[in-house]
Amino acid sequence: MKKKIKPIFLLNPRIWQTMLAGITLISFIFIMLFIIVAAWIDHGVKTECDLAQPEFGEGECVEALLAKVQNEQIPLTDRNKVVWALGQLNDSRALPILKILYTGEKCDHEKFLCQYELRKAIKLLEGGFNVTQLVRKSYH
What we know:
By secondary structure, this protein is mainly α. Helices cover about 60% and strands about 0% of the residues. The protein is elongated.
């Protein structure tokens, strides 16, 4: 009968300490990246709210953003940013309006709102998982 031989390196406590330190460091980096990205997204949403509210009403952010996204006098690039912010805010009031604006056609950024951004926002509003929603503040 053959005797099983355990690799000697697995018995070395320094190997286990190094592995634990590596796992801890990778976990810390992942958490920090999540916090940085969530804060960056939060800042972007707040910026869009701050830009829309003075011009489209000092009420709730979502209402101002909805007014802005429907205003055809606003440049498409600005309205596309509003579409993104509405998706991030995850407010169901935006869903009917975004669905009206969504044609499903190929993107033509010179003539129409970005259909890709609209599709992403609609998916989030229809219950898609938005991990940054866990740390986002509410805007009014």
